[in-house]
Amino acid sequence: MGERKMTRDIWLTALILIALILLASPIRGKQNGITAQTGEKGKSALRRIYDEDQKDRTGTEISGDGKRREQVRQLIGEGKVQSGEDYYYAAFIFQHGQTPPDYLYAHVLAVTAVSKGFNSGIWLCAATLDRYLQSIKQPQVFGTQFGSVGDGPTTQDPYDKEMLSDRLRATWCVVSSATQSQILDDVRAGKEFRSTRTCSAN
């Protein structure tokens, strides 16, 4: 059991280190705007798919999530996604997926967005990792995920609060664990959910 936990910790640490290295890499010049099939009103195909995704949040495959993910995979496969901004939109679409591979792919896309200079994607790197970890029955580490099972209370569990410091959370644009606790209390009291993001999304 101890060896299994050690292996998991090593694997998780390696994954976070890889992401941190990408986050720390120099910005590769100014973004050249939208590159994935720019169309109506100057919006890229990824931005149009993203806008549709935001309008159609029902949490089920019926909502068209599967079709949107397939469209994104096709654009990426055809080499039509180049800018960090478009990778960010792609990551958000896969963040709304259904399976662990969807969430892991979302994390890779979010890290790619930041590595290309789109620093607004830093929080999404943390959120996608947290969602992926919980989807494979492992504790989240940043504290971006809130939810409930059935009629149970809203919770962040499973959550390893001790793995990361609040200083490191701040680097990834995530609020402190104390602020997360206040958000959780507010939600349980019936108040509107507040985002854990500290950096601008624009």
Task: Outline the structure in words.
The chain has 202 residues and is an all-alpha fold. It has one domain. Helices cover 53% and strands 0% of the residues. The radius of gyration is 17 Å and the shape is globular. The termini are far apart. About 10% of the residues have low confidence.
Offer a concise description of the structure.
With 202 residues, this protein is mainly α. It contains eight helices and no strands.
What is the element layout, followed by pairings?
Layout: H1 2-24, H2 45-55, H3 65-77, H4 84-95, H5 100-115, H6 122-135, H7 166-171, H8 177-188
Helix pairs in contact: 1-5, 2-3, 2-4, 4-5, 4-6, 5-6
Features:
mainly alpha; 53% helix; 202 residues
Q: How many domain units?
A: 1
Helical fraction:
40-55%
Order of helices and strands: HHHHHHHH
Number of strands: 0
Q: Structural class of the secondary structure composition?
A: mainly alpha
Report the end-to-end length measured between terminal Cα atoms: 44 Å
Instruction: Round the mean pLDDT to the nearest integer and report it.
Output: 83
Share of β-strand residues: under 5%
* pLDDT < 50 runs, ≥5 residues: 21-40
From the spread of the alpha carbons, the general shape counts as globular
Major beta sheet summary:
none
Instruction: State Rg.
Output: 17 Å
Number of helices, where a helix is a run of at least 4 consecutive DSSP H or I residues: 8
